[in-house]
Here is the input.
Amino acid sequence: MDAEDLLAKYITPSDRLADAVSSSDVFARQFGTELTAWEKALLQDFRTRISPRTLQFRGFVRHTRDPSTVLLTPSPWLLDGELLFFPAGTGIPNDGARVEVVGKRVASPYHLQRSSEFREAIAVEECNEIGFDLASLVSPPMPLKDLSGLLFEHVGMAEASKRVFARLFVSSPPYQEAVGGLTAGIQAIASERQVRRFLSFIKNVLPPSMRVKRPSSTSVLGLRVNPPKMWRLDAGAVGGKSLRELCVNRRDPSGYREVSVGALTQSDTSLLPDVPLALASEDFWVESSRPDYLRLPVLKSAITYQLMTPEVSMKSIEAGTSHVLERLEKIQESFGLRSETLARGGLLDADALGRPLSMLKMARSTARTYWKDKVTSKELKGAWDRVLEPAIREFLELSDLKKKSEDAWGKGSRFDRFNTKVMRAVRTLDTGRRGFLGPTLAEIAQEAGVEPHVAAETLTRMKESGVLYEPRPGHFRLV
Here is the structure.
């Protein structure tokens, strides 16, 4: 690190322990360096003594198995705090609400009635719901570029694809009745084993409670409490039924508000995610690494992003939707796709909750990374033009290449060992005309945009695998 980078690191206001290592789960973190900066502010404001016996608390309500007793936590992402006892006839606030309560310490009636164990609780005398708008007071979390760099230091992948997977941790807030989050699918043109390894790494960055569909209840101060279902991430070989529920029906049967998914897709599920990706072998590699080393800094940023809910006007959504529909028709024409591809659940998925919603999710996720509370029609269109459409076009091109390769060389052929740029170049230049000698090495390298030695290596592999022949030295044709 040079002097300027070192200076910038220590004079920029930020969490100085953002890169600390911790194995704690999200709901069981200690009240120390494992908390985010905004959680520490909430903790300082959690308890105030009004008189020798009367206390005031500000925190978040978590319902327990006892209707008259709730757990009050200083942060929505913690399961620790104080028990509150509500006398008969007192209204119980909603689960997750932030409240201000005034009361005195008493022996918990729940514990006195059910066991000999003594527990303290706050007998509530006053309870008022208060707002929770910290976004303007919170220091912005890690920028997308830094988050992507931290996550994928040991992963070789196109920068655009890295930014897509970094956005899984940023997520996107719900829209109308649709579940929030973001979904990305990988069609493995590269080695499927390597893709599975990559997705396992993505999943294991987060603590266990953020990657399970049905978290088990936890014992807190002698009471069973269910962890809140705010956001979870799933990655790997996600079942077709689960993927369809999230990507087409836009709901999560497990009841989470936001769900991010990175799925290894097959031919029957590749059409479903918000962002379909095809990873080619020449652009993809995974080094051995420890995902749990990244857990705390990524977690701190991920739960802070959740504080921001970027707003977008209906006028902007309508303008963005018109733009997407126009671009979809052009994609359909350029690839010669059937009209069924525009149907619900199809690749282009043109209705308001289809690709236009994918555009909205992407734009709101991006707004979170810039800590912006509004999304404009220009930003909606930019999300489509810069991320989604290029991803769809590349996906279509590589999926078509995979299909043609399987048709020509058999379904089990190992074309993932070949450079796809070179393969596409040969297909483009080989006219198939009788008597045609085929393109030369130099022509193939130029068309593919690679160095001649890279093209030569791939052509040799293809020839040895029996998918290419050399009718004359230096000229190549597909079998």
About this structure: The radius of gyration is 27 Å. The chain is about 35% helix and 20% strand. The mean pLDDT is 86.
